[in-house]
Design brief:
The complex is a heterodimer of chains A (633) and B (114). Chain A is of the alpha+beta class. Chain A folds into 4 domains: 121 residues, Nucleic acid-binding proteins (OB fold (Dihydrolipoamide Acetyltransferase, E2P)); 102 residues, Nucleic acid-binding proteins (OB fold (Dihydrolipoamide Acetyltransferase, E2P)); 125 residues, Nucleic acid-binding proteins (OB fold (Dihydrolipoamide Acetyltransferase, E2P)), CATH 2.40.50; 161 residues, Beta Barrel (OB fold (Dihydrolipoamide Acetyltransferase, E2P)). Chain A has 12 helices and 30 strands. Chain A is elongated, with a radius of gyration of 37 Å. The two termini of chain A are 43 Å apart. Chain B is of the alpha/beta class. Chain B is 15% helix and 36% strand. Chain B has a 5-stranded mixed β-barrel with strand order 2-3-4-6-5. The chains are: A alpha+beta (633), B alpha/beta (114). Chains A and B meet through helix 12 of A and helix 2 of B. Chain B: InterPro entries: NA-bd_OB-fold (IPR012340), Rfa2 (IPR013970). Chain B: Keywords: Nucleus. Chain B: It comes from Adineta ricciae (Rotifer). Chain B: Its main location: nucleus.
Chain lengths: 633, 114
């Protein structure tokens, strides 16, 4: 009700240039500016006011010196209600939102008053030109929490009321101001938590002035040291959660020491006066656009026992294991499942750092799929999966080795049999009844047969990428169909000697001579050496298919084929060949250059043939399409 | 045969009066035998009216419906395509839904009527 006494919206209107309005505003802060001149008389003192219109506050309001006496006689003080009779806007740097309101004439309507409303600082974006031309620069300014220009010394011009345009001597909007909580205008009792102003974590943003949250520390990392251009430093991060959401908070150096030992995982705290900035998605995967930094003014108070009961332990955003197939590698997710089996501890040495790492792999299952999860270091050493417990992971990293795998990071939170989610009981019941005995599709088993660690390429890429020309053979997979098969030379008479493989000469008298073994045999074996042309939408390529792969391709053994050939059963052979062609499959090929007399040719051998797994092929295509789209996330 | 646009439940209104193809799971067949409820790839429920008596279709089956969107946002269907269990066992409905949305998103890249 008292709000109606103040002219809401007036501050923004003034800043935008409508200065004829005689708004009624409230003084919410007064600061005197040191003058750089030696003039001892009070007439040169300059007062800077923070004014409120009931909804918003603006802190760059300079009081005309002729009204200094109002402050000195305490007629004008904090919470006084004033009417602005003459005001002008001074745009020092409108692009960056550095404007000031010059109060030339005002009248105190009411000296003493209660604070009206709960005004919040005007966001800089509102102050800047409406076209938003400078918004991007503004974001950076806020995120770095440092003014983009050097903070100006707060000197006032000596005796005149006119502010020199563009002078560096003028205080700026961002002058050493943290986006949140300007200390110089801290009200009384600014050193303790204001429990009346508790808000939800999901409403936190950098433009808020006074707030308090009541949150539980759901995860706390160890202190880490780092070095940057400014020297060595240390930090730790923790995740805070309340009933509305979660947010990551980080403390550096002094605050790191101050708060790391104080904050305990699982406990609830009141927190106020921390800085907020846009979340750095590279390191922070919590479900919040912003992240918090504890600074010099941050206040943290433990919650009394019993007061924090309504705050959840942790916020999970589980996805089913099968959904992980659709997520990209190096992203993180939350997942829950039952530990079906655990591997032994393995020690691997990193090629890059020569350091030894301990790891252990768990097979995690849910009702539709299973996936391999890697634990590291101490977690791996201490893990015991013999009770097939339910494990929940928050912020676990997705990898694409052999399909999809999960790997714990430093920041991953692991909870055993978590009580916050009904999934624990659901999974337990399902596993004990059926899950433990069934085999589920395993995302970590290379869903694309034949494309494990071999890249999938198009046939035209063979030429464009010069595959096969190097010293080592290249292995690729292609999705193609057979368009031609040389059926007359599909099989040959092979030496019956195990491991010989050489073609024998038919001596037409029941004997077959093998030059390699230097022996004559009375029999031979039929063997496949199929020359086939495969094609995809980009081109075609002749390949050679031997043994098992040829058998898979043609559907009959070499022996059968050979017999048909001997019997001159042309129509049967044509039937076989026809069935093998024009049918898409995944071919895994080995490309290597051969020197044959003077010619250097690339030979393509088929290493495996497999049917196409359409669902995983489709998912791969969707992934590729998404990667080609301009990034939106 | 005219081209039927592949759509999901949320696109029905946009395609009013046009020939469409919808793949979904049968949730219910009405006692009349001419009408069925279909759960589309984006988990919406639509009504399909067939000119002929519906045969060989059971709740839980995945089918493809070819027809037109009428003015009540239902499908007036002239053909129902049924599949063998082996054909639908591995069918990833969610991926099909993503494909349908991609077709809409990139109509210039989705070739029809070659």
């Amino acid at each position: 009700m008292a709000n109606q006494r103040l002219t809401t919206g007036a501050l923004l209107r003034y800043i935008r240039g409508s200065t004829t309005e005689k708004a009624i505003l409230q003084v919410v802060g007064i600061k005197s500016i040191e003058s750089k001149t030696d003039d001892p008389s009070n007439a040169s003192k300059r007062y800077r006011l923070m004014l409120s219109d009931g909804k918003s506050t603006f802190s760059s309001c300079m009081l005309g010196t002729q009204m200094n006496k109002l402050i000195e006689t305490e007629s004008l003080k904090e919470n006084s209600i004033v009417r602005i009779d003459r005001v002008m806007v001074n745009s020092i740097d409108k692009q960056n939102g550095r404007v000031m309101l010059m109060l030339y004439e005002l009248e105190v309507l009411q000296s003493d008053s209660e604070r009206i409303g709960d005004p919040v600082a005007l966001p800089l974006t509102d102050i800047i030109n409406n076209n938003g031309a400078s918004t991007n620069r503004l974001e950076t300014t806020n995120n770095n929490q440092a003014p983009t220009a050097a903070p100006a010394p707060a000197a006032a011009p000596s005796t005149t009321n006119v502010i020199r345009q563009g002078s560096k001597a003028l205080p700026t909007l961002d002058d050493r101001k943290k986006p949140n909580g300007d200390n110089r205008f801290a009200g009384k009792g600014g050193n303790s938590i204001d429990k009346e102003r508790i808000i939800n974590i999901d409403t936190l943003n950098p433009y808020m002035n006074k707030w308090t949250i009541k949150a539980r520390v759901s995860n706390k990392g160890a202190i880490r040291t780092y070095e940057n251009a400014r020297g060595p430093g240390k930090l730790f991060s923790c995740d805070l959660v309340d009933q509305s959401g979660e947010i990551r908070a980080t403390a550096f150096n002094a605050e790191c020491d101050k708060f790391h030992s104080m904050l305990e995982i699982g406990e609830v705290y009141y927190i106020a006066k921390a800085s907020l900035k846009a979340a750095n998605r590279q390191f922070n995967t919590t479900n919040n656009d912003y992240e918090m930094t504890f600074n010099h003014d941050t206040i943290i108070e433990a919650c009394d026992a019993g007061e924090g009961e309504n705050i959840p332990q942790v916020q999970f955003n589980f996805i089913p294991i099968s959904e992980i197939a659709n997520r990209s590698a190096n992203s993180t997710c939350d997942v829950i499942g039952v530990v079906k089996s655990t591997s032994d501890m393995q020690t691997i040495v990193s090629r890059a750092s020569q350091k030894e790492f301990n790891k252990r792999e768990i097979l995690l299952v849910d009702e539709k799929a299973s996936i391999s999860v890697t634990l590291w270091g101490q977690q791996a050493e201490e893990f015991d999966g013999s009770s097939n417990q339910v494990l929940a992971f928050k912020g676990i990293k997705i990898g694409d080795f052999n399909g999809r795998t999960l790997s714990c990071m430093n920041s991953t939170l692991i909870r055993q049999d978590p009580t916050e989610t009904p999934r624990t009981v659901e999974l337990r019941v399902w596993f004990d009844n059926e899950g433990k005995s069934i085999d589920l599709p395993d995302l970590s088993k290379g869903a694309d047969v034949g494309s494990r660690q071999t890249p999938i390429k198009t046939l035209s890429q063979i030429i464009s990428e010069g595959l096969g020309l190097g010293d080592k053979p290249d292995y690729i997979s292609v999705k193609a169909m057979t368009t031609l098969i040389k059926k007359d030379t599909a099989v040959y008479m092979m030496c019956p000697e195990e491991r010989c493989g050489k073609k024998v000469v038919d001596e037409n008298n029941g004997s077959y001579r093998c030059e390699k073994c230097n022996k004559t045999y009375s029999n031979f074996k039929w063997a496949y050496m199929v020359s086939a042309e495969i094609s995809d939408s980009t081109g075609s390529q002749w390949i050679t298919v031997f043994r098992n792969e040829a058998e898979a391709l043609l559907g009959v053994t070499a022996d059968e084929f050979g017999n048909h050939k001997l019997n001159q059963s042309e129509s049967i052979i044509e039937d076989i060949v026809r069935k093998a062609m024009n049918h898409e499959r995944i071919f895994k090929l080995r490309a290597k250059a051969d020197q044959y007399n003077d010619e250097r040719r690339i030979r393509f051998t088929c290493v495996s043939v497999a049917d196409i797994d359409w669902p995983s092929h489709g998912r791969r295509l969707i992934d590729e399409i998404k990667q080609m789209e301009p990034t939106q996330n | 045969m005219t081209h039927h646009y592949r759509i999901n439940g949320s696109m029905i209104q946009q395609f009013s009066g046009k020939p469409v193809s919808i793949i979904g799971t049968v949730s219910k067949i009405h006692p009349s035998g001419n009408v069925l409820d279909l759960e589309t790839s984006d988990q919406q429920h639509i009504v399909v009216r067939s000119s002929d008596h519906i045969v060989d279709v059971n709740p839980g089956n995945i089918i493809e419906v070819l027809g037109e969107v009428d003015n009540r946002n239902q499908i007036a269907c002239d053909t129902i395509v049924t599949f063998e269990p082996e054909q639908t066992a591995n069918f990833d409905m969610d991926m099909y839904n993503q494909a349908v949305m991609l077709f809409q998103h990139y109509p210039q890249d989705y070739l029809v009527n070659l």
